[in-house]
Structures are given as C-alpha cells and as structure tokens.
Structure of Cytochrome P450 724B1-like:
Amino acid sequence: MHGILGKHSLLLVSGEQHKKLRNVAVSFISASKATADFHRCLEELCTAMMESWKGRKEVSFHKEAKEFTMSLMVKTLLSIKPGDVIGSRILEDFLTYMKGFVSLPLYFPGSPYAMAVKARARLSSTVKEIMKERKNKCISSSGDDQNRISDDHSEGVGDFLDVIMGKEGSRWGLSDEEQVSIVLDILLGGYETTATLMSLLVYFLAQYPIALQTLKEEHQAIRRSKQDGEPLNWEDYNQMQFTYNVICETLRYGNVVKFVHRKAIRDIEYKGTHKKVTPFGGGARLCPGYGLAQVELAFFLHHLVLNYRWKIKGDEMPLAYPYVEFKRGLLLKIEPINNSIN
Ligand code: HEM
C-alpha cells in the first residue's frame, strides 16, 4: 500500500502525524459542507447533468456519477472547473490509481499495480504543478493578502489548496509532500464512495415506487416554498428528513466500502453499544466526509426526482468487483417530468 499511497498518506500514517493530517481534512470538509460557495458549485453540477439529459432516452448513469463527484471534488479542492482538460486527466489517472488498490502488489511493466504507482506519481506532479503556479502568482503579486495564494477564484475563502498553502497551512506545519498527499487522500476518500452511493440510490429508488413518491413529495414541498429557480440552501437541506433516511437505508443495503480492513494497534476497553452498520468506519478513522457526501446526494436527489422519471432494465444489478460496478453501467431509460413546480 505504501508504494501506491505514498508514505504521508492519511490512510496509512498513525499517531501524531495522523492526528495532524486528519485535523486539516476535518476542518476544511466540515466548514465546506455548509457554505453557499459549495452549494452553488454543487447545484451547478446538478443542473448541468439534468440539462445534458435533455433530448436523450437513455443514460449510462454510473459513469456520469463518477464524473459528477470527481468534478465536485476537483472544484472544491483545486478550483478546477468542470470540463477543464486537467480535470479529465485527473479522473483518468484516478481510475488507474484505484485499480491498483485492489490488485496484487506485483511490480512489472503493465501490471495494474505498476500502472497505479505511475498514475499516483502523475497525480502528484499535477498537484505540484498547480502549487508551483500559485506560488509564482503569489510572488508576482506582492502586497496581496498572503493568506490567499491563488487569485482566480474570487468567492469565499479559496479552495482547499489555498487554505493549506496559506497561513492555515503553516499553522499546521505541513510539508509540500504532505500537502500533495492530503489533497489526493481527500479526492480518494470522496470521489468513488460518493459516486457509488449515488448510483445505488438511483438503482434502489427505481425499485421502491412508494419510497420514491414520498421522496418526491418532500422535494416538491421544498421547491414550492421557494421562488422560481431560487437555489437550495442549508435550511432547505435541513428539511430533507426523508431524503436522509433514504440515504441511510441505501448505505445499509449497499455496503459501499468493503475492502478496508483495520487492525487495532492496541487493546482498548470496550463499553460502548454494538453498532451493526458502520458505513463510514469508526473511531479515530471515522470518515470526515460523511456530512459532505450527504449534502451532495440530497441536492442531487432534489434535482433528479423533480426533473426525471427513470427505469432500469430488469437484469441490471450491482456487482462487487470489488468496487461496486453495474452489469450494464447502470443504463437508465429516462423521461423528463413536465410539471409546474420546476
Ligand atoms: C458515501 C460516501 C462515503 C463513504 C461510504 C465513506 C466511507 C469511509 C470509510 C469507511 C472510511 C474509513 C476507512 C478506514 O478505516 O481507513 C473513510 C475514511 C475517509 N473518508 Fe470517507 N466516505 C465517504 C465520503 C467521503 C467524502 C465525500 C470525503 C471527502 C470529502 C471522504 C474523505 C475521507 C477521508 C479523508 C478518510 C480518511 C480518514 C482517516 O483516515 O482519518 N469520504 N470513509
């Protein structure tokens, strides 16, 4: 695993280094999920997906879900806009990188493991290039606020890379290598997991019309309470109680992350209650992104259920491959909903 993830990876380090890197990830992710910038970016992606389906009868959904979550992550972390060439390059390298995770660690030319190690090196160079550009810009624009490294994303406090390269980053004392590694770790944690859950939601909802109808009513009520085209916000999200239940139930059914096996490094006294479902891990390794993933999925479901009906071919099914894949890529037959609520 060290060969693929690198020695500074949050997923591998323990003790003080883990605590430090984890704090960096937790503070940014928890702050982002409730910001208007994040909601705007998320809704733009939802709307773009719905728009891109116009005039189509079928969509291969699982691929779209992966592109969606990758676009959201690279925009939030690195300010890479959807459709940028660099974003597609990162997605491609990420797919190769992730295949290596579940392969035998045999390093010979062309083996999945060797290709993943190379893909990780390319990803690392891509992030380093972006860091270099921002440092150069910062030097050439002397007198600017030193906490803002890049100047091409004018809203909010900047992206994650801005934060870790600025004053906040120095407070945590992150080395350049740690900065690169934490960007890639958050991408790794946040992209495939959320895309899989997104696909499983679409898959299960198609089979439970009563749940789908209740979900739709929840989102229709929220839409009715707003002006035409008014964006969703944190208060709306907090109204999505049934949506939250649907997400939790899908997680219970779906078993999204199944190949992370942890060993305790020391004995602990056990006195808590026994939890049967722990889709976000637990303890010191509890997923810092679960709240953000829930907002992402809730906003997506809002747009989906208000804009389209969908059906899935009878023999479609999720396969543990070991990542969750779909027999036909989750091919949906879609039909737009023409109602006045939208
Ligand atoms: C449905 C969505 C998600 C699921 C099911 C999920 C699941 C998990 C699980 C089971 C772990 C613990 C793994 C371990 O023991 O090492 C974990 C860790 C992690 N997740 Fe998530 N995750 C999701 C979304 C996200 C998102 C959106 C982000 C980032 C924005 C994220 C970032 C991370 C990070 C950085 C870790 C490592 C934490 C640490 O080692 O301290 N995850 N996730």
Q: What stands out?
A: Residues 268 and 283 are 11 Å apart (CA to CA). Confidence is low (pLDDT under 50) at residues 145-156. Residues 176-207 form the longest helix (32 residues). The domain at 2-258+279-336 is CATH 1.10.630.10 (Cytochrome p450).
